[in-house]
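Support request from a user on the community tier.

User writes: "When I paste my structure tokens into the form, the page sometimes reloads and wipes my input. The last time it worked, I copied everything first. Here is what I submitted, just in case something in the input itself triggers the reload:"
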């Protein structure tokens, strides 16, 4: 991975204020030199246009010296500004004023094919609707006695909580329900990451995770994955930076499809045990019940330090918008407490639907059939690509990570054939790196696998 911290700085824009000018602007606007006062002063300068989108702000130490305050005061001001979406922090560009909301475009929005442009859209991880359980009969039998006595009631139905704890991948200290896996990751980041904290992720990883961390003001360190998961030798070095959290995908890694082996789980757990004693480990199990392999979790090896997110979108239906968070008590308690200031709980009607689905043996059989179908589609694509000398990992889940000679050309060439795929660059930690991969999701790859392989092989080849 390219270390962005040693990359040459970009050429400054002539109209941007110098560091000393920016310090002077902030000092003049700052009537209260607390962290809140500094943040409010900068916010006012942004609103008035004195600081424009893209303008680089002084370093924490520089501004602290200029204002004669502690570095922690300015760092807290930066955290406040980051939380409200007013600044961006990147190792290459320093801290800059963020573009207005109408101008922002995160990595995630570079992944899906443009709406209506693909006859066969394989750019997202959407499951095949034909393989999802039907909710029609279940909705007609919903109970009418799901009521609350207080807004302070427990956020999880007791029966559902007991069921999930009994099925959890390891002994969980606590469990709660939220509105999908991304909602879970977002809330856990908010609960555990402060502005300027180091966060370790796999490289590549799912783009929304990187977007969330950027908005949180985190300093992200990417650790490459190989055919067995995140590399323990490089993780060992990354953990020397004492990250606040590490976000990993032990099963069906997105975008590569790689799942950790039991041996790799032990190696990675050993690295975490040696270093970063105060680092929370967040496991994102986005594939949920479509990929179930007992023991592929760090939770059994690192009790009290792991939080696992288990999604039910791909297995039971994206429109349920439901996921469980289970594991270490402290970060889950922080999520529950903060959520009380907003929605407080995920609809108990939806929770009841999930409980009913999870206790229906016919639904279990449908989910297993869906897993078998996705596995067959994946196998056919992988075998076809390998037969044409394109090396891809076996993997699990819906996603396949395909090397190509030229990423942009491959995406365009497939689009001309009516096939939408995801470009690889947004999945990389360093957005400036050219990935020269595409991600193909097999959820909608129902027919004509041979024709799809031919199109992918042609797009992957050099000109």
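"...and here is what came back when it finally went through:"
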């Amino acid at each position: 991975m390219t270390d962005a911290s040693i990359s040459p700085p970009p050429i400054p824009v002539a109209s941007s204020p110098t560091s000393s000018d920016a310090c002077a602007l902030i000092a003049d606007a700052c009537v209260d030199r607390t962290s809140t006062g500094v943040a409010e002063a900068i916010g006012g300068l942004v609103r008035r246009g004195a600081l424009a989108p893209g303008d680089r702000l002084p370093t924490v130490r520089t501004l602290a010296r200029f204002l004669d305050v502690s570095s922690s005061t300015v760092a807290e001001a930066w955290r406040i500004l980051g939380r409200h979406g007013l600044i961006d922090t990147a190792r290459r560009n320093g801290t800059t004023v963020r573009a207005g909301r109408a101008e922002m475009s995160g990595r995630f929005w570079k992944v899906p094919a443009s709406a209506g442009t693909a006859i066969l859209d394989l750019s997202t991880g959407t499951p095949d609707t034909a393989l999802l359980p039907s909710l029609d009969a279940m909705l007609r039998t919903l109970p009418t006695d799901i009521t609350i006595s207080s807004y302070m009631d427990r956020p999880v139905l007791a029966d559902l909580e007991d069921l999930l704890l009994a099925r959890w991948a390891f002994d969980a200290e606590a469990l709660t329900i939220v509105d999908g896996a991304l909602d879970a990751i977002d809330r856990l980041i908010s609960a555990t990451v402060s502005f300027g904290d180091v966060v370790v992720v796999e490289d590549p990883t799912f783009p929304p995770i990187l977007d969330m961390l950027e908005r949180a003001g985190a300093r992200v360190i990417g650790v490459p994955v190989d055919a067995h998961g995140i590399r323990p030798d490089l993780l060992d070095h990354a953990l020397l930076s004492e990250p606040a959290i590490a976000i990993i995908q032990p099963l069906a890694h997105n975008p590569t499809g790689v799942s950790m082996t039991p041996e790799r789980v032990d190696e990675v757990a050993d690295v975490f045990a040696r270093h970063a004693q105060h680092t929370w480990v967040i496991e994102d199990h986005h594939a949920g019940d479509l990929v179930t392999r007992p023991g592929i979790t760090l939770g059994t090896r690192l009790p009290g330090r792991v939080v696992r997110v288990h999604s039910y979108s791909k297995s039971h239906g994206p429109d349920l918008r439901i996921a469980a968070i289970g594991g270490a008590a402290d970060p889950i308690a922080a999520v529950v407490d903060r959520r009380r200031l907003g929605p407080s709980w995920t609809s108990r009607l939806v929770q009841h639907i999930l409980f009913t689905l999870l206790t229906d043996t016919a639904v279990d059989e449908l989910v297993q059939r869906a897993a078998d179908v996705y596995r067959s589609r994946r196998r056919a694509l992988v075998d076809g690509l390998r037969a044409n000398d394109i090396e891809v990992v076996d993997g699990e889940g819906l996603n396949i990570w395909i090397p190509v000679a030229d990423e942009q050309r491959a995406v365009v060439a497939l689009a001309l054939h009516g096939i939408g795929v995801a470009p690889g660059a947004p999945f990389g930690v360093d957005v400036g790196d050219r990935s020269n991969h595409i991600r193909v999701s097999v959820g909608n790859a129902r027919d004509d696998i041979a024709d799809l392989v031919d199109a992918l092989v042609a797009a992957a080849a050099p000109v």
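Agent notes: The reload is a front-end session timeout and is unrelated to the input. The chain has a mean pLDDT of 88. The two ends are 27 Å apart (CA to CA). Escalated to web team.
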